[in-house]
Amino acid sequence: MYNLLVTAIEGAWDEGFYEFDKSRFLEYTNEDIASALKELSNSHIENLKSYPSLFAYEGEDSDVHIGYLTSVKERGRKLLIEFEFNRDIEPISFDQIKSIAPLLDIRSWEMNRTHWAVKDEDLFERLRAKGVLEEESESRKIKQERPTVGKSKNPRISTVQGFIGKVLSIEKRSGLEVFYRGHSNKKKYKLEPSLFRRDEDGDYLYKDSEHILYRELLVSNSADFQSDVYTLDSLVRMQHYSLPTRLLDITSNPLIALYFACKSAASEDGEVIIFSMDRKDVKYFDSDLASCIANLARLPQSEKDEIKFDEADFNEQPQVRRLLHFIREEKPFFEAAIIPDDLRKIICVKGKQSNDRISSQSGAFLLFGLDSVFDEEGTPEIKVSRITVSDKVSILRELDLLNINESTVFPYIENSAKYVAEKFRFNKSTQPTAESGG
């Protein structure tokens, strides 16, 4: 295992410390490792500190240093690292690294983006085998353990009654809104919208094509979107049609979340995530803040990458002015005064009940801003707790008795037909057998 740390800031590795945005942590990292590290526990931090690290700059002109992390601290949306180089190892030319990039799991274009990846390769063994390092070069003798998912401390339920008891036991103060989300595999799934999902190698599947996905669906199904006033309305409809968007579905009905936690992966533990937030922090479909974030979907990724958040004339940047143009298409009197940090927020928003599925699922959404990462432990605005779910088949039977099933959660005639056909399908094992008389 080793850390690969890349930055575009010239001279950054001369300072002994650096801040990464959390959204750049675990890019180009295999999915099983990224899943294990989604909760950055103390043991995971110790693991990261035990791995050797490559410190590199974007591009192909600068040498690469080898060293170790000495400290990793979470600071809001940032990860502050401190580090030291191994003074017994001379800097390595980028050409030497490039020549063995596949052996180090360094991928095409990876060195052109600021990020922090964790690679499942033995760095020193690879470098020595190719003659980049001499055999006697010093390396730490600490055992480097692969990160694993920690044992859950969350309550576990195996019946609907037990689940309802846990939900009702959660303290709810006045002015608080509570929402729920179900994950069928608690080890695999993270709190991220489908747009930000990655393949098994850790590469984004859809993120770079967001503006194309948005426009292509509008072009091919324009009649379905004619009634939409805001970009958020269109994103909600696209989410309904399973297009990857920057929306994450949540629900105000805990039983709906329990159904989604049980409906697949029967052999894996599921979980229900509970989100608690002040009612004043919940936005609606016509919110100015929601318009600012939602219209990022129309901006090409190359322009989103160019936004400089510490720029004094933030709203005068060409890419921000284009974003303002999109916002004014739906809100002509919107002032040219976007607050930079607003574009990186995650907000809870209630969209219009524009289709039966949203209504039946009591749906709301978390809307993710630019490169936003939801802290699995919760944020200052949104408190998170979890319930582990087992014995899914039995729970689905109990939910069916409460009229929570595929027919009611997905209220379309084809789903109703499928549900009815399965429910009343002839099954020999359930039929009574006639007693033979003598």
Describe the 3D structure.
- Helix 8 crosses helix 13.
- With 438 residues, this protein is α+β, with helices and mostly antiparallel strands.
- 28% of the residues lie in helices and 20% in strands.
- The chain has a six-stranded mixed β-sheet, with helices on one face.
- A hairpin with a 2-residue loop joins strand 4 and strand 5 (78-85).
- The chain has two domains: 2-129; 156-290 and 341-418, no CATH class.
- The chain has 15 helices and 14 strands.
- The chain is globular, with a radius of gyration of 25 Å.
Topology at a glance:
Blueprint (H helix, E strand, L loop, with lengths): L1 E6 L9 E5 L9 H6 L5 H9 L1 E6 L7 E11 L2 E8 L8 H6 L15 E5 L3 H7 L26 E2 L2 H10 L6 E8 L26 H11 L10 H10 L6 E5 L2 H9 L7 E9 L3 E3 L3 H7 L6 H6 L11 H13 L15 E5 L5 H5 L2 E6 L14 E7 L2 H10 L4 H4 L3 H11 L15
Parallel strand pairs: 1-3, 7-14, 11-12
Antiparallel strand pairs: 1-6, 2-5, 3-4, 4-5, 8-10, 9-13, 10-14, 12-13
Helix pairs in contact: 8-13
